[in-house]
Amino acid sequence: MDRVRICALAFLIAVTLVLVAPAMSQEGSVQEYFLDNGLQVLIKEVHTAPVVSVQLFIKVGSRWEYPGISGISHWCEHMCYRGTEDFTDEDMNDLLDSIGATLNGYTASDMTCYHQILPSQYFELALEIEASRLARSLFDPEAVDKERTVIISELEWGENDPEDLLYKELLSQAYRLHPYQFPTIGFRNEIMTWSREDLYNHYKEFYIPSNSVLVIVGDVDSTDALSLVKRHFGDIERGEVPREVTSVEPVQDGERRFTIEGSGNTSHIIMGFHQPSAEDQDIYAMYVLDAILGGATGRERAPRLKLALVESGLCSSLYTYVGTNRDPSLFFIGATVAEGVSLQDVEGVILAELERIMVEPIGAEELEKAKNQIMASLVYQNESISGQAQHLGRYACIVDWRFGEELLDNIHKVTAEQVTALAQKVLSSSNMTVGWYQPTGEGEGMSTGALDEPMSDPLSPQPFGTASWQGPDGSSAGIGEEAGNSIISELSKLTQTSAHSFEFERRILSNGLIVLVKENHSTPSVTIMGSVSAGSLYEPREKAGLASLTARMLSLGNSKMDKLERFEALDFLGASLDFSGGVETITISGRCLSKDFTELAQMLFADLTEPAFPSEEFELLKSRTLTQIDERYEDPFYVAWKKAREMVYGSDNPLGWDAIGSRESVMAIGLDDVRRFYADTYGPERTIIVVVGDVDADEVFSTFEGGLGEWGGAGKEQVAVVQPDAPSEPKTETVTMPGKASTDIAIGFVGPTRHADDYYAARLLNEIFGYIGLGGRMGNYVRDELGLAYYAFTRFGGGLYGGAWTAHMGVNPANVERAVSAFLEELSRIVAEEVSEKEMEQAKGSLIGQVIVRLESNAGMASMLLGMEYAQLGDDYVTRYPQIIASLTKADLLVCARRYLLPDGYCLAIAGP
User: Which of 66, 76, 670, 715 is most buried, by the most CB atoms less than 10 A from its CB?
Assistant: First the structure.
């Protein structure tokens, strides 16, 4: 490449940095404070939505553990949700649920994190809860015993996953001394021995202000926020400095490898290489190396290893991961091997690519592409309020919160020579640990992607959310009828007064295609989301999977560029544009920096209107799909879910089968079927596209009219879907999966359609029965009170054409009968008596508050708008929604329960050893 070209590339990188840098600070700069007791407080004002994220980080994780107490930090995290001196676990969930906030936590090697996102007017409640969690958690002995069973169930659930088994074994092989060798969940034999005193002593040692970081990002005033922090955290004692970790991992002096044999039909490989810590200046070159090999955002299609393995057909998936840790950690490469391909061949290709990057100079254009991806990834990660808070806290625990603020400049300084030198150091065979998973062919299999439920309510909370409260008067008493009604009223008012946050523009193009645009100039990024009514409902049963294959083929080349050219163009921008198939629709999802929006839009136009459908890519995609099907059948959760849905709807109803298809149906699909399906089902009148982000609405409409306005194709079409009658008596099927550690249970019922007159009653009932908190009544009873399951929750379909209403539990095989009996107890109760006033108001607040929380990101707003348009709910739906929910009565819910949740009309599927 000539000198002029290289200089031009350097200039482009500098310009990109200037354009992207404002995104890292968004509206306000980070304000850092230290309380007298040592608590580090980071506050950042972001006023794009009436939402705030509060995250408490404790500097403790598996890094501080040793043989005998591995996993103890993770168990302490669980116990800190089990009640404090100020809040019972039930009160904590009730308060937070009642305003629609989300609450969760995790334990990692270097930290434990508790994070909330909630409407900003209830900000003080989050502080009250986190202060109580930090200083006054109870560790009730009875709760400790129950949580032991829950954690064992969680451990066993992970052991069902071959990749989880590989990861844990890799840690034990790659490390000889450093505590990074311990998985955060720990080991079963050690978990069984700990007492309440062991856990509480660990908690008291590390859960102190001087070892903690409190992060607040969102719609707050910094001065007022700090005053409230001092009120709730200022009197907590500083505590003694916890013990420090002094272990230093010896240099690895030779290749290490292992093989695990287990159930299933899919092979996996994992590699680990010792790499620099976050404090090492080489970490920036490590990020660039990772982007070149595997991509920076996780959605790239043309990094070296993905081209060599996935796009060649050798693997169905591949990932790389850089550890950002306090101490030197591991760089991971992992892949799922395609059917008929040997692990040895895959490893050989990986090693060849690693050798190439160690000996061949890296070109300026490839270096620039990697840097662009990293820059774009940082923008996307900081697009949401909670994402910004998460990164500030993580970096504060690992190295310094300014690490993220300075990351772009440091990435810009990385040279090709530095990357090559680091590759030679890190990727050498003497620094490598390799693990193979060899399947024995027994068992049924594992899910690697989201399940294809029909599009649900646009304002519904996301799966596995946990909700949260505080009243506007500052009180934190229990939720009674009066308090509950007050909260619902306040949330409804907040929705109305924040109407500007929901404002968007809608236009119909000349050919009938609908475009919605929501301007959000808080970050220089854009999200594109869309749907085409061309899902599996429209395909023949014998060729199930046709809609999904057709959708995925759209990203494999068009009339203007072939697959590799398209992938390279997207990767160079750090952008993504994908198509996936579901039951009712196929989904369009794209993301880019705002400066690249026009280029991404033009690619979307070509993909939608002029797909190439190349035959060689079709065969590779079929092969990859077959491997993915095999993977899904290795996961007991998927197997139970699929079986329950089939039992509810029958094998001939499209709502009863998986959009990805079966091995037999996918094998029967030819390229002519794909072309014919596209011609019959794709067209502007069946298409909705939503654009949210840093754009001008008029310019977007003009661009789309010019690019898609003349597109013709299939017109609107309705399909006839039969809603089955509930079974006259319970049905039960068991799928035996040898070699699995835990059992998954799915119980299915026929659910309502989106426009059923009792849809909203069913949505509210689902919150109470199996969603809010850690799984509503189901979670409270089966998980928390009885300690039988790692998870217990319900899923609600509710697409335009219907969808199964399912309950799920993950349990130890010995607890299956008890867990099913416990579920049936709750089922009988929900149809026998009206829910309580407290539950009613709590669930209403949760559903209404979730609307506000969804405003924190472009993706949340885009999915909301897409769902509204798809279901034809009207432009004012967001402002009408609180009144719809508030008007529901307990009698409405009881009638709904007796219509759908039939104690004698359920379908029970059990999958496990």
Answer: 76
